[in-house]
Every structure is written in C-alpha cells, then in structure tokens.
C-alpha cells in the first residue's frame, strides 16, 4: 500500500549519477517528484453477489464493462482507530465514482475492495447495491443514487455526494430521471445518512450538470458549513448552506467557458468541450475569510472570490451579477486547460493539466507563468486526469482516459484504462518555488492537523 511507496527524487543533470540510479533517471524529465499507480483497471468490475448474477447482468445489458469509467477518488482515514496503541493504525477506505455516462453501469459510487488483486481491484457499490440500482419507470428518487461525478470527504468524516440525476450523460439518449441532489453520509457512524437535499427546480436548468463540490467548514462545531457545487454545463455555482438547509445559484461571467479554449487534443484524440466552471479549491482561512479558487474547463486562466461573498445569499437574487471588485480573473495563463485542482493547508494550489501533467502555484504569488511549475507528467499514466484530492501529506488523482469515450477509435482491450495515483505533496513541490514559504496568519479548525500549518519549518 501507500506506506511502502518511496517516491524517487530526481536529480537531473550535473553531479555524479551512480549506475544504480541511471535507469531511474531515464524516466525523470524535468519534474520534481512522481506519482505512483496505486490501483489500475483494464475494465471496471464489481462485487456481484455471485458469478451468475454477474453473467446475467452482462447478458441483459445492465453491465457493459467498457462503458464504466472511473472519474473521481476520495479517501477516508479514520484517525480515531489506533489512538490508544503505540502504532497508530489508520483505517483507510478508498471510494471512487463511476458516473452513468453510458448505458450498462451497475453502480455509480463504490468502495475499492482491498484484496490480493493488484490490478483491476473490485468495486463494492456504496452504500449498497440497492441504493445504486436503477429501475427506470418506478425509480424512487429519494432512495436511489442515479449518477455521481465527484465527491468530497471533509475532515470530520462527512461524505458529500452530488448526484446529477441524469442517465447516459455522454450518450445520444441522455436524460434526466431525478432532480440533482446532495447526499451526506457519516463515515464515522456506520455510513448513516446525515442529509438528503434535493436542489429546487428553479435552480436546475435543462442542461445542468453538477460535476464537482468543495466543502467549507467555518466553525469548530462544523455546523456553519457551506458546499460549493459547480454546474459545468449551465455555467453556474450553487452554494449550499448546511445549517439552514438551503441553496442559491450564482451566475457570474467567470464561470463561463472561453470559446477559443474549447478545443482539446489528448493523446491524438481531438475534442471540443464548451465546459464552464469545473475546478475548485479552497484557500486557507485568513482573518475569518478564505478564497475559493476556480476555473472553467475551457479556460487557461484561474479565478477566485472570497467565500464570505458567496455566502451572502441576498447578493445573488437578481441573476447574473456584476462581479467586478469581488470576482477576480488572472491576467496571465497556463499553457494548457486544467480539469480539477486541490489546495494544501498552506495555500499551494495543485492542478491537473490536460497535457497529462500536474502543476503547482503558491497562492501568495501572482498567477503568472514565472510562478507556475510543472511537478509531474506522464503521457501514459496521466491521460485525462479527472479527479483529485489531498489527504494528509499525499495527493490522490484519477486518470480516466475519458477522451476515448467520445470517439469511435477502438482502444486496446488489454490496456490499462483507469488509474488511481498517489504522490507525496512535499516531494512533488520540492525545489519548484511553490513551497518556498508559508503564510503565518492561517487559521486552522481541523483538530487532527495538530496545528501543522503554524510550523515554521
Ligand atoms: C450582503 O450583500 C448585501 C447586498 O449587496 C449587502 O447590503 C450586505 O451588507 C451584505 N451582507 C454582509 C453580511 O456582508
């Protein structure tokens, strides 16, 4: 598992390179760290009750393995376990999303089953088979998970799941069968459902697609919590207020795509995505406020807004707002579009780039090419990064090869298509300049972090 992972520190050029290191240097390039493949799949497979159940699911078209794509990953580490013993054993659970983008997907959210299969580990539907089973026509929207693109586990073990409510999203027969909803499970208490929230129809457009979520905890009791949800296809940001159990929609110009950045070329596949806001990352809390960083998929710029602005519901009641002075757009740009992004406790943004790489930027610096650094790249292992999380000192990411879902090009049926990768944040950003200093005024509400962000190292 990850604890045995020893990232290789590349030292390219100069100095003496021993013969032992020479082989590793070949794959090193100009990047600082590396990402290790933790799990990989040729095709997704599930924990069917029996081989007969699996076979009948395949025969009936309820399970079409090549249509099931892993998009996001999330990790829960239960730190309560092992606190009494000397060796702090952390119980870890890994979850993935398999959005229902095409027919033949038996479960949209699943837990990786630890076991002895090194590749193509099985997926166990989460929280169970029943909730993931679609019986169209008689579907009970309250008790069914239709399709999940991305999730977020907060540091209190609350598992925030956004169900887009549509079936076969990337197919000609795409259709909405339930309103989009938010489900929150309590991973510390037997996966009990804490909240079910259906977004009101006035906040959902025909084209809406709720693709991503960030969770903003603002007091130590965590009642004062907001979720920010991207509506990538209607170009909106939805704010959910946990305490008051209500939501509102923000319409702002920087959530829209840049049409001249809608063209993508990934591993020889040409694609157009007129996709709006997708990447989200929350900065550290400073003076009781924090920034939400965001960008559209069809964009090479980064934007940000203070979350105290987003939390002021009254400001957004009259449609598209004039964001000047509140919403910001970087003047300089990345080389390539970015999908998802994450933030370290100290305010270092790590973003997934559509040239099969990861980049970093210290948010204390201007967003200019001088301060943007490539920290990892792999044309084979990191095709179409589509999900990313920071947990502890590690970054987890999914490479989904999603480009192949939009073409008729036949992919090699024996090749690995989906990967979950893990890297050590410190190793990845070392010697890039992203890590050069910490802000000293960061407030930390997460007790398990042991005031790490105040360390002066
Ligand atoms: C919220 O926004 C309204 C309208 O712009 C403004 O009058 C009010 O002062 C804001 N409230 C807070 C708490 O900032």
From TrEMBL:
Transmembrane segments: none annotated. It is found in: Secreted. SUPFAM superfamilies: YWTD domain. GO terms for cellular component: extracellular region. Keywords: Glycoprotein, Secreted. The keyword Cell wall biogenesis/degradation does not apply. Belongs to the major royal jelly protein family. This is Protein yellow. It comes from Acyrthosiphon pisum.
């Amino acid at each position: 598992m990850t604890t045995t992972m020893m990232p290789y520190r590349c030292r390219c050029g100069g100095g003496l390179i021993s013969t032992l290191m020479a082989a590793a240097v070949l794959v090193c390039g100009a990047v600082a760290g590396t990402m290790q493949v933790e799990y990989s799949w040729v095709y997704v497979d599930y924990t069917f009750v029996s081989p007969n159940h699996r076979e009948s699911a395949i025969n009936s078209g309820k399970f079409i393995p090549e249509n099931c794509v892993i998009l996001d990953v999330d990790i829960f580490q239960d730190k309560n376990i092992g606190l009494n013993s000397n060796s702090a054993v952390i119980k870890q659970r890994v979850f993935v999303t398999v959005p229902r983008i095409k027919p033949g997907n038996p479960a949209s959210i699943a837990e990786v089953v630890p076991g002895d299969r090194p590749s193509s580990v099985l997926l166990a539907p989460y929280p169970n088979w029943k909730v993931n089973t679609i019986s169209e026509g008689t579907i009970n929207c309250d008790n069914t998970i239709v399709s999940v693109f991305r999730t977020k586990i907060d540091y209190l073990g609350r598992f925030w799941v956004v169900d887009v409510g549509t079936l076969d999203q990337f197919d000609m027969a795409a259709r909405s069968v339930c309103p989009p909803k938010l489900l929150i499970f309590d991973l510390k208490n037997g996966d009990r459902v804490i909240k079910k929230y259906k977004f009101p129809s006035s906040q959902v457009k025909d084209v809406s697609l709720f693709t991503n979520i960030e969770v903003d905890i603002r007091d130590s009791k965590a009642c004062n919590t907001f979720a920010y949800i991207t509506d990538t296809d209607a170009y909106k940001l939805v704010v959910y207020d946990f305490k008051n159990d209500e939501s509102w929609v923000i319409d702002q110009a920087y959530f829209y795509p840049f049409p001249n950045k809608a063209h993508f070329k990934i591993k020889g596949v040409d694609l157009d995505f007129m996709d709006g806001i997708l990447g989200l990352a929350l900065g550290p809390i400073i003076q009781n406020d924090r920034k939400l960083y965001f960008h559209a998929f069809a964009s090479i710029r980064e934007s940000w807004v203070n979350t105290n602005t987003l939390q002021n519901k009254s400001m957004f009641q009259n449609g598209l707002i004039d964001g000047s002075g509140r919403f910001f757009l970087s003047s300089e740009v990345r080389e390539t579009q970015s999908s998802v992004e994450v933030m370290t406790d100290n305010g270092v943004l790590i973003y997934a780039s559509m040239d099969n790489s990861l980049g970093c930027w210290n948010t204390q610096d201007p967003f200019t090419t001088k301060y943007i650094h490539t920290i990892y790249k792999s044309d084979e292992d990191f095709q179409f990064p589509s999900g990313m999380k920071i947990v502890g000192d590690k970054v987890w990411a999914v490479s989904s090869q999603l480009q192949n879902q939009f073409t008729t090009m036949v992919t090699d049926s024996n090749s690995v298509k989906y990967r979950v990768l893990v890297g050590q944040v410190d190793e990845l950003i070392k010697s890039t300049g992203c890590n050069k200093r910490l802000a000293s005024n960061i407030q930390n509400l997460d007790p398990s972090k042991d005031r790490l962000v105040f360390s002066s190292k």
